[in-house]
Amino acid sequence: MSDVHSNSKFLVGIYDDDDVVLQAVKDVRKAGVKIHEVYSPFPIHGLDVALGHPRTKLGIAAFLFGLTGTLTAISLTFYTEGYDWPMIVGGKDSYSPIIYIPIFFELTVLFSALGMVATFLLSNGLGPTVKPLMYDLRTTDNKFAMTIDMSKNDIGEGDIESILKRSGAAEVNIKQF
Amino acid sequence: MSHVTSAVRTPLVTGGKTYADVTEDISRQVEGKPTREWTIAFTIAVVVLIYGAACVFWTWWEGLGVWGLNKTVGWAWDITNFVWWVGIGHAGTLISAILLLFRQKWRTAVNRAAEAMTIFAVICAASFILMHMGRPWLALWALPLPNTFGSLWVNFKSPLVWDVFAISTYFTVSLVFWYMGLLPDLATIRDRARSKVSRYIYGAFSLGWNGSAKTWARYEYISLILAGLSTPLVLSVHTIVSFDFATSVIPGWHTTIFPPYFVAGAIFSGFAMVQNLVLIIRVVFKLEDYITVEHIESMNKVITLTGSIVGVAYLTEFFIAWYSGVEFESYAFINRATGPYWWAYAAMMTCNVISPQLFWSRAIRRSVVWTFTLSVIVNIGMWFERFVIIVTSLHRDYLPSSWAMFHPTLFDISDYIFSFGLFFTLFLLFSKFLPVVNMAEVKTVIKSSSEKLPASVSGVAKGERVTSPTFNKNID
């Protein structure tokens, strides 16, 4: 969730179509308006690039968590079977890494998936007690909303409204938090 | 960005649906009162569950002696049911992960229900592990915990311990993957909710989802990585289940083709179960426009492919049993086909090898009645496959004086019935309280793969693609 201060005033442009809103983002930015965020009922490819959002680093998190999982599995099997209580079962060495590959693999996947999802939830500020700031309730149904933080823009309200309208907005509303 | 609709591709969504239609059609059953059919089905499921739970309780109270096991056949229905349910649990993640990597857009309509099925099937499978432990309160002994008798640990060289790791990882990751996919749809239902209670509950479970571009970009990214992680994971699970048998020295189990053969069989039975559930869902919830004959046909193609792999595996096993020159191995296979359990073997061969070949016919592949019937047959066949592998290999021991037969008791049967009660109770709860089709994902394919109704039928706006955005590109 982005930084929203109390008493922030937002202009909310409502669009009916994902292609229109994607083009509108490019045009509105070109017109010098700083866009706060776009809200949509489904992912729109290329929208994050058009908005200039930085590329997510969740992949690095997934890798590091996965590595943690592998190292955990290696230490766990090595400590228990190779050091603490070595056992020879089926004539195999008490510590032969090959036979523990399933454990290495499963813990890698488990740590990576859980760690990445936890990072995702934290970085987006998602959680069971979070009250979302909805600029328009229809954005989880069939509408697309472009929000403009007035405190971050020098252009006048009327001008922004007409820029939004010209970019294809079906309506422009004001939302105050 | 432009969406290109191929003229040769049949639409994935029929009826010229708009985004709002998708929300409306799929949220309807979540928001409305339970239908009469649902209430009846749910009541039956709960009654079966209670009966089954009582029998499972008795199994634990009295001990595993209530099952038909004997000294020779010490592992029968319990493990058969376990492998059968785990196998069924493979389709969901295959659809959501592997088909995502292959960019198969038809998955969008069926992935939610299939993933739910996966999770419930794995729960049913796990219940058989707990059951056949006999003393379920000691289940934590399977975990690598330092125990109270010294520092003896679990045997990490045992495929049963690998199984503990594989199944629990698979369950956890599938659940997380499914829940992440649910977030946008839960938010949709939250924002439509009229009553305070449902707004609160769906609000809490949607974790404050607001659909911002930043969230969506990250969401798409983690979906891709989860799919990448789940793809080898789903293949590893049944591979490891097959190791439970393949690492032993029992004739008929000690086979190197078990991993791919089990994985193919798992996908085969999983898709058959998805077909059964989805065919009911689409009629009961009137979702024929979303889950179309195209979807059914695509899944039938997967069934034909995996069924054929299973057929080849059966024949390969037989050939290798002869070619290896190991007389115990040859005997085990001849005994399977012609011994006292010949009928189970015949059922397996007919249901798994012959019946899916009917899907080479386009008419059968696209027929709802045929698909439903053959899917039931496939799952019966896959149950028999596990029964044949497990019981026929065990019942003829090395010493003829130890030869025995396995006869299921009331408790073998009732404990199996329990898992159906559990599965359908969970699935019916899911189908009532959560959207059975992934609305957000279906909305992404509407433009490229939706049926365009002629303007005279639909009006201009409905289902039409906006080809030229009506705004001035030179804003200044």
From TrEMBL, chain A:
Alphabetized, the UniProt keywords read: Membrane, Transmembrane, Transmembrane helix
Asked if the record carries the keyword Magnesium, the reply is no
Pfam families reported in the protein's UniProt record? ActD
Give the transmembrane region(s). 58-79, 99-122
**Source organism superkingdom:** Bacteria
For this protein, the record's PANTHER family field holds:
LIPOPROTEIN-RELATED, QUINOL:CYTOCHROME C OXIDOREDUCTASE MEMBRANE PROTEIN
Under what name is this protein listed? Quinol:cytochrome c oxidoreductase membrane protein
**Species in which this protein is naturally found:** Spirosoma oryzae
UniProtKB/TrEMBL annotation, chain B:
Q: Which domain of life is it from?
A: Bacteria
Primary place of residence? membrane
Q: InterPro entries annotated for this entry?
A: NrfD-like (IPR005614)
Q: Where are the transmembrane segments?
A: 38-61, 81-102, 114-140, 160-182, 221-241, 261-281, 302-322, 342-360, 372-396, 416-437
Q: Which UniProt keywords apply?
A: Cell membrane, Membrane, Transmembrane, Transmembrane helix
* One Gene Ontology cellular component: plasma membrane
Tell me yes or no: is Manganese among this UniProt entry's keywords: no
Give any Pfam family that matches.
Answer: NrfD
Q: Does the keyword Membrane apply?
A: yes
Give compartment(s). Cell membrane
- Membrane-related topology note: Multi-pass membrane protein
Family membership: Belongs to the NrfD family.
* Protein name (database record): Quinol:cytochrome c oxidoreductase quinone-binding subunit 1
> Native species of this protein?
Spirosoma oryzae
Give the classification, highest ranks.
Answer: Bacteria, Pseudomonadati, Bacteroidota, Cytophagia, Cytophagales
